[in-house]
Amino acid sequence: MDPSRYDETASLRDGAPVRLRAIRPADAAALKEGFAHLSDRSIYQRFFQVKHELTDTELKYLTELDFSTHIALVAVVPAETPEGQVIGVGRLVRGKHDGSAEVAFVVGDEFQGRGVGSLLLEHLARIGRAIGVKSLEADVLVDNSQMLEVFQHSGLGIEQGLRDGVVHVRLDLQAPPAGEPSGGAAGPAEASL
Predict the structure, then answer these.
(1) Measuring CA to CA, how many Å separate 74 from each of 7, 109, 121, 162?
(2) pLDDT value at 42 more than 50
(3) CA atoms of 154 and 148, how far apart (whole Å)
(4) pLDDT confidence of 144, banded at 50, 70, 90?
(5) Ranked by mean pLDDT, which of 9-18, 27-36, 71-80 comes out on top?
(6) Domains identified in the chain, total number
(7) What are phi and psi of 192, to 5 degrees?
(8) 76 falls within a domain
(9) Which CATH number covers residue 42?
(10) Could you tell me if residue 185 is inside a domain?
């Protein structure tokens, strides 16, 4: 599997079509626009601080990836532009030596609660397994119940620890998803983001 060419179609919880594809440099403008429409709460829950815009350096980091150590997918729904509207981004950044990868998500406020985060996690887990990632890790603010629910309902083995108002989550990619016999290929179950 070549993560830089990843492109799949899925359905949101309400049946609406969504495209999950590898992020590309041309998505920088859509990310900047989407960020401008995020609530302060959504920004804080993702970045642990309130920011008012993404810098050019940040946009370059977020869209110009090597797809080996840093992989990102965008969730896109049909819109008036030929490329559609980016409604969410999920990324994984591989660790140096231990087979782990940090995972992070942001979903546009109006699309939260429709399964976007769950789909991004499912597809990033699929990519992670294919490239040898053994576990996904994330730090989540304790009041970010939607993201915690996505992880808890992912069907993946989960470990959690709390420190200073931040929940550290570790998802095991080596064990089969819950309810699936060993050797199966299904992804994690849909959850609530």
Answers:
(1) 10, 15, 11, 29
(2) yes
(3) 10
(4) confident
(5) 9-18
(6) 1
(7) -110, 10
(8) yes
(9) 3.40.630.30
(10) no
> Contact at 8 Å (CB) between 7 and 19?
yes
- Cα 96 from Cα 54, distance rounded (Å): 26
Cβ atoms 120, 48 nearer than 8 A: no
The pLDDT of residue 62: 93
Compute the mean pLDDT over every residue in the chain, rounded to the nearest whole number. 85
Whether residue 127 lies inside any domain: the answer is yes
Instruction: Answer yes or no: is 78 within a domain.
Output: yes
Q: Rounded mean pLDDT of 68-84? A: 87
Which residue, 98, 103, 81, 86, is CA-closest to 158?
Answer: 103
Closest CA to 53 of 31, 25, 26, 72: 31
- Residues β-bridged to residue 85: 77
pLDDT of residue 83: 75
The DSSP symbol for 81 reads S
Q: Which domain holds residue 143?
A: 3-172
* Mean pLDDT for the stretch of residues 131-154: 91
